[in-house]
């Protein structure tokens, strides 16, 4: 798999204004229904078992409270991060209630993440259903157990690494810290740093062209913080116990797996190893299961029965090493078998497995042979005797045994779909989601395989309820290429569903130009394509071929604007709009869109792609990546497309416009350099400069032209400029709309010269000019290009000087939205 950046469409449904919540709930009716059902089930569980369920492991967690001794079997993350703080303010019933609320939040977060990446709403809701409705999930949430917190931390890793697109070193470092905390909650998370680091290294560089150095820094930040937190806890363990470790007697876990298959007669064992090697012959299946051997020598009575001064921990480790060395296939076969058990259609139990009924609702309160201990802790943290409501408990048991769980075959299918997407099946290679599938798929496979290496328990399959549906939903979307662009889910409120409409069909359907309503503000009517106050229009557009743009708005502008309104309704843009004019750039555009962040300099960012009569799949790529897409039905040139974008951004509330190219020649990570001076009001127009920064493989003639025209513009305008044609620029929204724009190809110099001549504050920033990621340049012959460029520079300067002498600097104020 090649390195690709992660796509992060901006679907701000969570920021919906209060008065639009009813329509938002209608659009998201399925997940709303599932959340209500999940909440109802959790209320039943809360009432059925008082104060909470206490499993055997619960007693260890409760024993650790107050002094947090790290020498037990498990690390103490659950006690420190969740259980202890909750018991400071409440009792065991309160802990269970909070855990149920966190379970609901877990389902909502799965849906929100998938919705953000354009997964269709019904698929996203079904992916959240397992964690919301699965009875085994409900049961573990009501237990005083660490599993729910472990699930939350794993999903948090996915969110941190993907929510704002491809992560840099800071998000990667945060994810490393969260991963380390997951290890301190459940030690099985120790191996998860591998898929997370691989994701950051291979699939989460800020841009593929950033090179390995950037990706190595991010992966190193993740691994470094992870290792630092783990080492810190190991030192804490050392200070208490004198041993540098994460838990006590973890070698018994490996011993349990080895003892279940050890061929004691064939192995050359020492007397001590003979003692801990099972006597039962393994051929007749009389040998106990892994769980028995893990815990057998942890029982004091069994330890006391051993010879005096017998080091059973050392003997267990020694035997395990010999079995691993001489019977690797037996070990691997056992691990593979236990891994596949989790994907069985129904909940089954094999001989030697952890009893299944431990994770099932019972009609009476389960005591596990520790009635006195259960009662003591229940009364200590709540003055309540443990009890079960027979009717409610009976209902929950019937629900669970009657199919109220996620079939393993469904989870296995989700894992398979995630893997297929990673391999590039269907449309996954071009979807922008292929790389993203790596993270949940890799985390799920790793955590389930690590758990299977220890022993099989249906409890250990619970992380799959979160990660596997997430991987499957992303995989389906990547393979099919069908995303939910959901303009109704954006800030502008409800709008038509466009998932089944092509950009071309939408443009062709724009046959009429509506009159502005009487309630339209005067300034907005002035900028509207339908305004009677607009300059005379020129219907120069034809059905095919490139046409010359007329005065704004011409016929093509009106068709494009009406199609945009048909698709997005009255949607209002974020304060910052990244504007891209694209013509036949389907190969490069996806990578550019994937790298655009959803926020910068404290402001939300929207992406607007103006498709300039493209004949390939440019518009489809833009829509699939969640960009707001305006389609001009015929090709008129980049200048006309940008002019249309400038007006559209102003009409719909943007405050700042940033332009970049669709060919991937600019580094979007440098966006703050353009935006911050505008936000600080220290400039009106900020442009990059390859001369102040760098340029990859510049041609000699182009480099000479850059120097010449920079000198010329500087001389004419009286302000030093080093690069007149850098396309990565930021500006206040009124700036480009105050300059006459007529050029279809040389718009960069036309706009810059016009802005300088009109007296706006212009700032240059050092930036990188990169090689194209795909496609070919459309600039043509260097000499002809230079001649035409010269005409534009001189002509624009003369024209704007005359215009500026008779008009104020700012001829229009932008239409802004309340945010």
TrEMBL record:
Residues 528-545 have a biased composition (Polar residues). Residues 481-554 are annotated as: Disordered. Pfam families: Glycos_transf_2. Residues 578-732 form the Glycosyltransferase 2-like domain. The chain crosses the membrane at residues 28-49, 92-114, 148-166, 178-204, 216-236, 405-423, 435-454. Keywords: Membrane, Transmembrane, Transmembrane helix. Belongs to the glycosyltransferase 2 family. PANTHER family: RFBJ PROTEIN, UNDECAPRENYL-PHOSPHATE 4-DEOXY-4-FORMAMIDO-L-ARABINOSE TRANSFERASE-RELATED. This is Glycosyltransferase 2-like domain-containing protein. It comes from Saccharopolyspora erythraea (Streptomyces erythraeus).
